[in-house]
Design goal:
The complex is a heterotrimer of chains A (272), B (170) and C (791). Chain A has 272 residues and is an alpha+beta fold. Chain A has 3 domains: 47 residues, Uridine Diphospho-n-acetylenolpyruvylglucosamine Reductase, domain 2 (2-Layer Sandwich); 114 residues, Uridine Diphospho-n-acetylenolpyruvylglucosamine Reductase, domain 3 (2-Layer Sandwich); 94 residues, CO dehydrogenase flavoprotein, C-terminal domain (Enolase-like, domain 1), CATH 3.30.390.50. Chain A is 32% helix and 25% strand. Chain B has 5 helices and 5 strands; from the N terminus they run ββαβββαααα. In chain B, strand 3 and strand 4 form a beta hairpin. Chain C has a 7-stranded mixed sheet, with helices on both faces. Chain C has a 5-stranded mixed sheet with strand order 7-15-14-13-8, with helices on both faces. The chains are: A alpha+beta (272), B alpha+beta (170), C alpha+beta (791). Chains in contact: A-B, A-C, B-C.
Chain lengths: 272, 170, 791
């Protein structure tokens, strides 16, 4: 990799200052499981790598009651919480078992020991698992500057609503009545070839798909059908158009479109 | 150049490294601990697996500076003199290695599994090894060795305390 | 030689001698070696598949921090090209077309990854930094990727010497007899298939360190090689023109090879040459991305096969036509793989009386293709075992019964095939029966129904393979175009106190020779296992060697050790006879003691060894002191391991995902030295064969870019992709080597791909599916099911 300046600020404020002074292309380092391979391949050439690890309060899992008209519970996951910590959390397993299971399926054990929620969503890999949870679980992405609705967070291929220097500090996942995540893994990388998270909140159902398009997306036809009748059979006959879906050596768009249907049904069945 | 201080196999070490120096480079090149291997550049093969603060990580996907103040255990830190760690012994007993190149990473990963899930069955062992590639053994004997190694580790420590089995750093 | 059971001898499942060092992280692989004053090489490689090099400007790179030297073909063009070790003649008698394979690209690049320049610096990071400053002006040429289109008029030529990109057009067999048999056949089954291109991917990437002593003029190369003497010969004689006595090649611990570390590579020659230019060590270590662009790959055949049967199902003839991809350059053994190691295996285990095979080798703008575990034999076995299964399907026969009907029978050995080989021994019914029993073949339909109730499609597949191992009788190989002999050498050195050092030309990179060879010595000399040291991998220590590949180590290398031990025993008898004042002719050697036949008078092996080195009261007028013997063993024939594999799969019809639910292997490897190690070899081969069948594929796009060029896209089998294997062996002894062994290294990779694909096709039989190409990915299976549903 190219050489860079390494900084390890102890506070969000110090990190923000470093960004201002950090030269042409500063980059934040969380768990590094995507960034470091990219640096090794010389795909990125940052002037400064700002390691967030020493900033207190960015990891940990808690729950809180919703405010205002939305009285629902949310599970708050700190941005630097590792995938392994989410997967192993008693609280997450109790409140949103689908989220724990999703985290358990990211990468491999060693990646899960280092990789973080904040790093994953800020990177916005179209085949990452967490984006499906952010969308389907009505999440709110909290940064050092503001709070962003999950629905507005992912903007496209490796693109988010984050502004330069903005740091994700936590993600609030709304606790659903039921939810399940089904993933069909790309065989080599084990990223999601297609991943579908189905979540039910009272009368509302959300179906979020990752891996299949340039960025995570919802399937309104499925959501409407499931809102009417929350059963796998309700999805019969609903086709997802392969138009705009990804095609690569592992799966053409039509196969991905087909898998969305299969996995959505299986997710509904898994919801029980 | 940044200076990094950490504990490796129980010994305090310091080294001058570049920001871009990987933990595996620090181990292999600065400290001469060549038992930790590099088999890929996309964080998949797991030949570089070591323990950092007691959990298995890929030392090729961690900067040396990120390991500052951490306790790192490598394959060289497992055996007690000439006596192999029970997991090492199990790999020998069950022919869980051929060329030996993936072996250090496999053993480090397996010990983490033993502490993480001492009741792992064959399926769980196979799933745990998602991050460790072997091209020689077809995994058959590695899986056998790990199941036996976990049992042996449990046998060496009261149940529940197996997580602190000898030779690891946490 | 009679002997009592030896607990550390032949047949014992001993734990391996090499394990403690590997398990403790004390192995010594090439990249673990660092020499004083070492510099680091980084190869700048072509990003284009085919381009003319108009200009290279290295001035800025040469001035960069830490840079020691930058070399291009301007510096290395005087060096020889990397040679190919086997000359194949086309059917018209013309020799194959060989373009120069330069160490650094000369004038044009021929594949993505072709090295153009090398940057040598104080650190690797500095070398890579400086590489970004090298400016190369390329004029892109059309890439040659598709083998069929490569031969078209107007297609670009990879090498000027082969304007139609055909390296050779080779044939084997009696075409007229085959055509005649087809004309009268009751049934003809025809199948087009692809044998997918693979990357060997040993987990240790290649590495090389060159060193040079101006004091002695000696060059030393540390390298990740399966055959250090072959590298010394090829590099010294053909590339660098350095006499062998001034080159030492060391292949220390090597982390797997599977064929890909047989060949002499440009990086080895370059670091050796540069170390002498710079008078300091030069080290290069490949990373995985680089390995995908520079290690020779395997397989890549496009084949049409036809099988003619009579009305009873007896095979009348087999006809095969194949395009074999050579890649951009002829790698060391590339030419022999699709020819003599492929066409000669087409009889399989069957009595097919007439066989004809035509192979066209094609140059393309891709990485060189050479032997990968099995090398030609997996390709032959795959097409044969697939076409037999399809014939069974078409003629309504059970695939097992069709095979049985055509098996060579035990009484027919030695058996002359119509494709040049003479099988010495085998019992194909026995391995078939063993596999069927293990798999409960008879009970399969019940399991299929149970799976159906769970919504899964279950299939069973059988494949019976044969391989020719222990390459090769040198006279035969020479007549067929080999540019080297293929014997093996060994020195057995009995030390004065009775311990033994064995210097073998075989090379262990996972096979456990330090253990198995020591067992052979312990067995034959009756000495303790821990008194035997196996030394390999260093041309300065070992007399000579052809190395390890083609499952030849125990059959050829082991036989050389036995031959040397026979000389030791013969000399020991002379010494012991003198010590015991007996006639040499009355001496016997058993259980580690020289005895006077019919008496209780004896001398131990240790006493005789000591006497040889302290030759007091010694027959110095007729016997030299010392006890050390060297032998070269040239095999009398190939060996012919064979077996039957049975695979059971379950397919999820909604996604096309395949799970291997059971895998049974029944092999005949002849005598077995260490059953634990043999089982391990089979497991590993099975994983690679299953990897080929289900997961692995080097995919090039039309521009010649390797799309699956990392572990992110090239799917290596993982633990959770594979089942536990059920393996068993039975024995027919090899008749022509002293150990009666056949070799076991490649069998798993040869027999398993057709077993897996046969199982998948069987699972899909209700959909009318007749073939699935490898790798049988979920998407391919889903498409096959979907197109059947549409019909």
């Amino acid at each position: 990799m190219h050489d860079f300046k390494y900084a390890r600020p102890a506070s969000l404020a110090a990190a923000a200052t470093l960004v201002k002074k950090g030269g042409a292309d500063p980059v934040f380092l969380a768990g590094g499981q995507t960034l470091i391979p990219a640096l090794k391949m010389r795909l990125r050439k940052p002037s400064t790598v700002i390691d967030l690890a020493a900033i207190k309060g960015l990891d940990g899992i808690a729950e809180k009651k919703g405010k205002g008209k939305d009285k629902g519970l949310t599970v708050v996951v700190g941005a630097l919480t590792t995938h392994a910590a989410v997967a192993g959390s008693k609280l997450v397993k109790a409140r949103i078992p689908a989220l724990a299971a999703l985290a358990e399926g990211i990468g491999d054990p060693q990646v899960r020991h280092r990789g973080t929620l904040g790093g994953s969503i800020a990177n916005a890999d179209p085949a990452a698992d967490y984006p499906a949870a952010v969308i389907a679980l009505h999440a709110e992405v909290v940064t050092n500057k503001r709070s962003i609705s999950g629905d507005a967070f992912f903007k496209g291929f490796f693109e988010t609503a984050l502004k330069p220097g903005e740091i994700v500090t936590a993600v609030n996942f709304r606790v659903p009545d039921k939810a399940a995540y089904m993933k069909f893994a790309q065989p080599a990388s084990r990223f999601a070839l297609v991943g579908v998270l189905v979540a039910k909140f009272g009368a509302e159902v959300r179906v979020a798909v990752t891996g299949a398009g340039a960025s995570v997306f919802r399937v309104p036809d499925m959501e409407k059908a499931l809102a009417k009748s929350f059963s796998a059979a309700a999805l019969d006959g609903i086709k997802v158009s392969p138009k705009d879906l990804n095609s690569d050596i592992h799966a053409a768009a039509d196969y991905r479109a087909h898998l969305i249907g299969v996995l959505a049904k299986r997710a509904v069945e898994a919801c029980g | 150049m940044p200076r990094v201080a950490l504990t490796v196999n129980g010994k305090a070490v310091t080294a001058e490294v570049e920001g871009r120096t990987l933990l595996v480079q620090l181990l292999r090149e600065n400290l001469g601990l060549t038992g930790t291997h590099v088999g890929c550049d996309t964080s998949q093969c797991g030949a570089c697996t070591v323990h950092v603060n007691g959990r298995s990580v890929k030392s090729c996907t961690m900067l040396a500076v990120q390991a500052a103040s951490s306790a790192v255990t490598t394959i060289e830190g497992l055996a007690n003199g000439t006596e192999l760690h029970p997991m090492q012994e199990a790999f020998r007993e069950h022919h869980g290695l051929q060329c030996g190149f993936c072996t250090p990473g496999m053993v480090m990963s397996a010990i983490d599994l033993a502490r993480h899930n001492p009741e792992a069955d064959e399926t769980q062992v196979r799933e745990w090894l998602e991050g460790n590639l072997c091209r020689c053994t077809g995994y058959h004997n590695i899986v056998k060795a790990i199941l036996a190694g976990i049992k042996a580790m449990l046998g060496n420590a009261p149940r529940g305390k197996s997580a602190k089995s000898r030779g690891t750093s946490s | 030689m009679t002997h009592q059971p030896n607990p550390t001898g032949i047949g014992a499942a001993l734990k391996r001698k090499e394990d403690p060092r590997f398990l403790r992280g004390k192995g010594r692989y090439t990249d673990d070696i660092n020499l004083p004053g070492q510099s680091y090489a980084y190869f700048l490689r072509s990003a284009y598949a085919h381009a003319r090099i108009k200009k290279i400007d290295t001035r800025a790179a040469k001035k960069a921090r830490g840079v020691v030297a930058v070399y291009t073909s301007a510096d290395t063009a005087k060096l020889g090209g990397l040679p190919c070790g086997w000359l194949i003649h086309s059917k018209d008698g013309s020799p194959m077309k060989e373009g120069k394979h330069p160490v650094l690209a000369e004038g044009k690049v021929r594949h993505v990854g072709d090295p153009v320049a090398v940057i040598i610096a104080e650190t690797l990071a500095q070398a890579r930094d400086a590489a970004e400053l090298v400016e190369i002006d390329f004029a892109e040429l059309p890439a040659v990727v598709d083998m069929a289109k490569a031969q078209n008029k107007g297609a670009a030529a990879v090498h000027d010497v082969a304007p139609d990109n055909v390296c050779y057009d080779w044939e084997l067999g009696d075409k007229a007899a085959v055509d005649a048999a087809f004309a009268t056949a009751a049934h003809v089954t025809r199948l087009e298939l692809t044998n997918n291109r693979l990357a060997a991917n040993p987990i240790e990437p290649r590495a090389a360190i060159g060193d040079y002593s101006s004091a002695t003029g000696e060059h030393t190369l540390y390298t990740t090689s399966q055959n250090p003497h072959v590298i010394r010969l090829l590099m010294g004689a053909f590339v660098l023109q350095i006499p062998e006595h001034k080159i030492r090649v060391i292949a220390p611990d090597v982390g797997g090879g599977f064929g890909s570390k047989i060949y002499h590579y440009a990086e080895e020659a370059l670091v050796t040459w540069a170390a002498a230019q710079l008078e300091r060590p030069v080290k290069w270590t490949s990373d995985r991305s680089e390995a995908f662009l520079s290690d020779a790959q395997g397989r890549d055949h496009k084949t049409v096969v036809e099988l003619a049967l009579d009305k009873d199902g007896k095979f009348l003839a087999l006809r095969e036509s194949t395009l074999a991809n050579m890649g951009a350059y002829l790698s060391t053994f590339a030419s022999v793989i699709p020819t003599w190691l492929h066409g000669t295996l087409l009889a399989g285990q069957y009595t097919t009386p007439a066989i004809y095979c035509n192979v066209k080798a094609i140059y393309t703008s891709t990485v060189a293709v050479d032997a990968y575990r099995g090398a030609g034999r997996p390709e032959a076995t795959f097409l044969l075992e697939r076409v037999i299964d399809l014939a069974a399907l078409e003629t309504g026969r059970d695939p097992v019964e069709l095979r049985r009907l055509n098996f060579i029978q035990p009484h027919q050995f030695p058996y002359q095939t119509p494709v040049a080989l003479v099988y010495d021994s085998g019992n194909y019914q026995a391995t078939m029966d063993q596999a069927l029993k293990a798999a409960d073949y008879a009970g399969f339909e019940k399991r299929r129904q149970a799976a159906k109730a769970r919504g899964k499609l279950r299939g069973i597949g059988v494949a019976s393979y044969i391989e020719a191992c222990g390459i090769a009788p040198s006279n035969v190989a020479g007549a067929l175009g080999a540019r080297a002999g293929l014997y093996e050498a060994a020195t057995v050195r009995v030390n004065p106190t009775g311990s033994v050092s064995v210097m073998t030309g075989s090379h262990s990179h996972g096979q456990g020779h330090e253990t198995t060879f020591a067992q052979v010595v312990s067995d034959k000399l009756g000495i303790a296992f821990d008194q035997v040291e196996i030394v390999h991998g260093d041309t300065a220590k070992i007399p000579f060697g052809m190395g390890t590949y083609g499952s030849r180590s125990i059959a050829v290398g082991g036989s050389a050790i036995v031959k040397a031990m026979d000389k030791i025993i013969a000399k020991g008898k002379k010494i012991a006879a003198h010590m015991l004042e007996a006639a040499e002719g009355d001496m016997t050697f058993e259980n580690g003691a020289f005895k006077v036949a019919g008496t209780d008078r004896q001398k131990s092996f240790g006493e005789v060894a000591f006497s040889a080195y302290v030759p007091h009261k010694y027959p110095l007028d007729t016997v030299e002191p010392g006890l050390e013997e060297t032998a070269f063993y040239d095999p009398k024939n190939f060996t012919f391991p064979a077996g039957t594999y049975i695979c059971e799969v379950e397919i999820d019809p909604d996604t096309g995902a395949v799970e291997i639910v059971a895998f049974h292997a029944a092999d005949d490897f002849g005598n077995i030295i260490n059953p634990m190690i043999v089982e391990g070899q089979v497991h590993g081969g099975l994983a690679q064969g299953i990897g080929q069948a289900l997961f692995e594929h080097c995919v090039y796009d039309d521009a010649g870019q390797l799309v699956s060029g990392s572990f992110m896209d090239y799917c290596m089998p993982r633990a959770d992709n594979l089942p536990s294997f059920n393996v068993a062996t039975s024995v027919t002894v090899c008749t022509h080597n002293p150990l009666g062994v056949k070799g076991c290294g490649e069998a798993g990779a040869i027999g398993s791909p057709p077993a897996v694909i046969n199982a998948i096709v069987n699972a899909l039989k209700d959909y009318g599916v007749t073939h699935i190409e490898m790798p049988a990915t979920p998407q391919k299976i889903w498409r096959a099911i979907r197109s059947a549903k549409k019909k």
